[in-house]
Amino acid sequence: MTTEILKRPAGETSARPLLSIAGLRVRYGRTHAVRGIDLDIMPGESVAILGESGSGKSVTGKAVMGLINPPGKVAGSVEFDGMQLVGRSEASLRAVRGPGIAMVFQDSLDALNPVFSIGSQIIEIFTVRLSWSGQQAREEAIRLMLQVGIVNPESRLDDYPHQFSGGMRQRICIAMAIALKPRLLIADEPTTALDVTVQAGILKLISQLQRDSGMALLFVTHDLAVARQVARKLVVMYAGRVVERGPIDDVFHRPAHPYTRALLGSNPGSVKHWSELKPIAGNPPDKSAVFTGCAFAPRCPRAVRMCSEREPDFVTVADGRQSRCHFAQEMFDGR
Amino acid sequence: MAARTLSLTPPRRRLAADSRLALLLRSPVALLSALVLIFLLLVAIIGAPLLQDLANTQNLRLRFFRPFSLERGWAYVLGADALGRPMLAQLIVGARTSFLVAGATVALAATIGTTLGMVSGYIGGVVDAALMRISDIIVTVPSLLLALSVLFVLEPSILNLILVLAVARLPIYLRVSRAQTLEIRERVFVEASRALGKGTSSILWRDIRPLVVPTVMTVAMLEIASVMLAAAGLSFLGVGLQRPDVDWGTIVSEGREYLTRAWWATVFPGLAILVTALAANLLSNWMRASGDPLQAAAMGVTASREEAARP
Amino acid sequence: MLKFLSVRLTTSLIALTGVMVIVFFLARLTGSPASLYLPVDATDAMVEAFNRQNGLDKPLVSQFVDFVANALRLDFGQSIAQQRPAATAVLSAMPQTILLAAIAMGLTLLLAIPLGTFAALSPNSTLDRGITLFSLFTASIPDFWFALVCVLVFSVSLGLLPTSGQGGLSSWVLPVATVMLHPVGVITQVVRGAMLETLNAGYVQNARARGYSWRRLAFRHALRNAALPIITVAGDRAGGMVNGAVIVSAVFAWPGIGKVLVDAVYNRDFAVIQAGVFVVGIAVILLNILVDLVYAAADPRIRVS
């Protein structure tokens, strides 16, 4: 099986991918956060990365943005619109950030500068990045705030981040991310810190903005139910590796990897009664560990001897469906 | 998914201490600083009693004997002062006093200040308010002025110098340990102890003290240098120590009278203070950095320059 | 904010009152100044007359009552040594010292902020190590010794700067450098520590994700947040510059509050010591309130609540 086929699921081979990640690795000293992942995102496509905390999903998002700070080290390839981002200088990455790729972070209180007003932070984007006049930038800031659902934006321009509710703050973060009309939006668990009721509104907003503007979306989450609301394609990560991918509803209904199946079983939204919830046995693996076989084997109910000796390759179980498991086909077939 | 563990026992520091020692051995600057301090301390403890008499031997023929000459033996290698006393011997005798004053002051201020700070933070209320006001009073008056007026009243002596400096430095320990106690007080293992009916003094000693002490130690290391500088300043102003007690500040103050004739009588004692204070500051700076997880992680790995240049 | 300031003012005034009580009794403990001002063979009658003239014959308690009553009218009595009101002696020296402290603090910040920022921008690099070493070095130099060595080098050997007194601009160089010495080291370290934290904060990473230059990230987004601890320590050190003023007066015979206070202690000039401590205490309190105001201006979270 060639990598070419792996990277281009059938049916989407026509256009060139907007973002193409190949063999991406991120490590901090001896800690391996991402252990080699491949992922393509087509223009306008919405992809969710699903994984437990520590699976490397957030680090992947940051690595695409070039936001891995020393002592973290990035290896592999991240191509955006044909341009290699790994190893590129900070100065030339700057041109991509904003109009190319933009990002929404998990904690909106932490992501906004506490000492500047909301208005000045949004206006700054236009005056600095587009050299607009203050007046023009101000008008665009008001328009943006309206677009993300802030009521009375004019009167709130001079307010500071701590004066907004969590949901409103996240809307402002989204406004700032889409200000320069990015072609790819990375959302790193944007609703995790929010109440469930507020969550739905934010998800709807992201979905709607994505559909209207035609930008691609990379949505990082640990919650499958949330992923289904915004993304069409799903990538499941475990221990810094992609273990399964495919159209999100297909994966949801017919998981082809024991880990995905376990995730579904431990998801409160997917069962009728709490007694059906089955937590995954064991703990996520140590990030400094070196694996000879499948990283999930120690926790896997199906694991046999081969699993801890040889790492499985991707197995294509159906059109656009791949799973990194020795028993992928059996899992897919429901055996 | 990992089960959340509620820690009901105070965290242990043992492991951290071991790996810290290993880190110290890997950091050349910190290791050098520690060795310099240990060397100076040994010289002061062993050398001072042996050289006491020589240091006070006046020899008017050797007035302003120039340094860097071995003609008169090792004791005179750094020259001689206005009374022909050998500088090197004087510096070694002065070292003992300087270390004694700095060490005793820090130990006294840290012990009393930390105890008061823990009590103040844990009990709160009137005791806390009163202690904080007293600490305000000490902070309001510039420390040098306070020390100057008190020492002018009291007879200059090592004990009085230590007492005055300790009072002036008390608020630092009081505030650091109080702030930390306030935070630890709310932790689960303290609440558990309270629920088990442990007494206040037992909680302070067994649960809170082990967590406050490492922070205080870092502050104390930093304070060694400050106190040494402050003590030298007071001796320089003529209210710290007086003969026969002598510390490095006293020697600078005496040498100053002949600054233009014998620079070495002023420069060498000052250099001794500088080297000691710098070693203590470097060591405490390293202690702070290695205690901070963010920086400690970075210390283990050397980042390439281009990566490092990124904000 | 107003409530906070009034609480701050009240506690400061309580502290100042405590200080005044302590200083009053402490000063009396130094013994009567009569022995210092009268000839050695002065008769008992002369001493008595001296004490009466300076109000030292009354019981300690009634001296204290008088002192408090007068202090409330800002009357601290006559300076025995200078033969003029103590308050005048102290106040006339203040502008010198305030100017010295202001210049020294201004230069300190001008030096410490860029140094600390560049150190924090590349943690553990050669530049960072160099700057850290420099800042620890300046904080480790005994300031009085630094002043003496500077006199030796710049005045005696090179003849560039005056050794003492206050004349033109050149007479300010060494006093300012001496007073700056420790604050530069300490504040550089504080700037570095604060910037290390804010440069790694989420809002700086987010701003970086919007494609801003490192200058904008460091000097606008990170520094404005790092300003809070810097302001606190700078205020603290500005108050501590009185210590530097004492040293400067001792080495350079530089006029100012340092000289007035040191002379007063040596001359047992009670009135001046009391007035001096009071005025310096008030100055420190005003400085703290100024710091609170700057703090509030720098952080909207404090300003609003």
TrEMBL record, chain A:
Gene3D superfamilies cross-referenced by the UniProt entry: P-loop containing nucleotide triphosphate hydrolases
One Gene Ontology term from the biological process aspect of the record: transmembrane transport
Membrane topology listed for this record: Peripheral membrane protein
MF terms (GO), sorted A to Z: ATP binding; ATP hydrolysis activity
Domain of life of the native organism: Bacteria
Compartments reported by the entry: Cell inner membrane
InterPro entries: AAA+_ATPase (IPR003593), ABC_Ni/Peptide_Import (IPR050388), ABC_transporter-like_ATP-bd (IPR003439), ABC_transporter-like_CS (IPR017871), Oligopep_ABC_C (IPR013563), P-loop_NTPase (IPR027417)
Ranges of residues in domain ABC transporter: 19-264
UniProt-listed PROSITE patterns: ABC_TRANSPORTER_1 (PS00211), ABC_TRANSPORTER_2 (PS50893)
Pfam families from the UniProt entry: ABC_tran, oligo_HPY
SMART domains: AAA
GO cellular component: plasma membrane
Keywords: ATP-binding, Cell inner membrane, Cell membrane, Membrane, Nucleotide-binding, Translocase, Transport
Family: Belongs to the ABC transporter superfamily.
Protein name (database record): ABC transporter ATP-binding protein
Organism from which the protein derives: Oryzicola mucosus
From TrEMBL, chain B:
CDD domains assigned to the protein according to its UniProt record, in alphabetical order: TM_PBP2
Keywords, ordered alphabetically: Cell membrane, Membrane, Transmembrane, Transmembrane helix, Transport
InterPro entries documented for this protein: BP-dependent_transpt_permease, MetI-like, MetI-like_sf
Chief location of this protein within or outside the cell: membrane
GO cellular component: plasma membrane
Start and end residues of each ABC transmembrane type-1 domain: 95-284
Membrane-spanning intervals of the chain: 29-52, 99-123, 211-241, 261-283
Subcellular location per the Swiss-Prot or TrEMBL entry: Cell membrane
Membrane-topology descriptor: Multi-pass membrane protein
GO biological process, one term: transmembrane transport
Family annotation (Pfam families): BPD_transp_1 (PF00528)
Assigned protein family: Belongs to the binding-protein-dependent transport system permease family.
This protein's name: ABC transporter permease
Organism name: Oryzicola mucosus
Automatic annotation (TrEMBL), chain C:
Places the protein is found: Cell membrane
Keyword Amino-acid biosynthesis: no
InterPro entries (alphabetical): BPD_transp_1_N (IPR045621), MetI-like (IPR000515), MetI-like_sf (IPR035906)
Keywords recorded for this protein, A-Z: Cell membrane, Membrane, Transmembrane, Transmembrane helix, Transport
Keyword presence, tRNA-binding: no
GO molecular function: dipeptide transmembrane transporter activity
One cellular-component annotation, GO: plasma membrane
Domain ABC transmembrane type-1, first and last residues per copy: 94-291
Membrane topology of the entry: Multi-pass membrane protein
Ranges that cross the membrane: 7-27, 98-121, 133-160, 172-191, 238-257, 277-298
Pfam families: BPD_transp_1, BPD_transp_1_N
Principal subcellular localisation of the protein: membrane
Protein family (similarity comment): Belongs to the binding-protein-dependent transport system permease family.
Protein name, UniProt field: ABC transporter permease
Organism, scientific name: Oryzicola mucosus
